[in-house]
Amino acid sequence: MSKRILMVAAENDALPNAKVGGIGDVVRDIPLALAEQGCELHVVLPDYGHFAVMPTAQLCGHFQLRFAGQIERVSLYKLQSMHQQHTNVTHWALGHKRFAPCGDGNVYCNDEDNRPFATDASKYAFFCAAIGQAIVNGGFGELDIMHLHDWHAALLLVLREYDPSLAALKAMHTTYT
Asked: Helices 150-162 and 118-136: crossing angle, nearest 10°?
C-alpha cells in the first residue's frame, strides 16, 4: 500500500517564484523521489498573492477557520508544476490576503528593526492554522503522513496538540525537518 504524504512548506522550486533558499530545492526534488517509490504526494504552500491568478490554477474550493478572533475564508488551488510532471505529485496553494501582506509574490517580508519577522510570523501562523483546517475538511483527500518543512510549518505541531478542532491530526504520522 502506498503512503499518502502531505508536504507543508513556505517554498517550492517546482512553482514559479516560490524559491528563496535551499528549502525550495528540497521541496521540489523529494516529492519526485518519493513518487518514484510509489508514494502519493501533495505539496502545499501559501499563495503569496500570485499562484491563484496563474492561468493553470484550478480553484478546488473554500473553507473557513477562526483566526485572531475572526472567521476567515481560505481558497484551495491546485497548481501545475513548472518542472517534471509526475502523476503521483500534486501541488497546492492556499489563497488569502494574509499570505501577501508585503505585496503579491513576496515569500518573505522585511520588517522594521523594532519588529523583526513579525509579519512573517503572523503569516505562517495563519498558514499552519489553515493547513490544519484544510486537512480536517478533507481538502487533500486521505493522508497518512504530514511532512513539515522548516519553522514556517512548525506551529502545525502545536495546533495539532492543543486545538480541539484539529485533534484528528494526532492520528497522522508526522515528520519535521
From this structure: 50
| pLDDT at residue number 103 | 86
Question: Which pLDDT score is estimated for 86?
Answer: 76
Residue entry with cell 520588517: 111
Extended strands (E) in 16-165: 40-46, 58-67, 70-79, 89-95, 145-148
Single-letter amino acid code for the residue at 21:
G
Q: What is the pLDDT of residues 96-125, one digit of tens each?
A: 999 999 988 899 999 899 888 899 999 999
Grid cell of 119 as nine digits: 509579519
Answer whether 39's CB lies under 8 Å from 5's CB: yes
| CA 106 vs CA 94, 148, 152, 164: distances in Å | 15, 21, 15, 32
pTM beyond cutoff 0.70: yes
> Distance (Å, rounded) from C-alpha 78 to C-alpha 119?
26
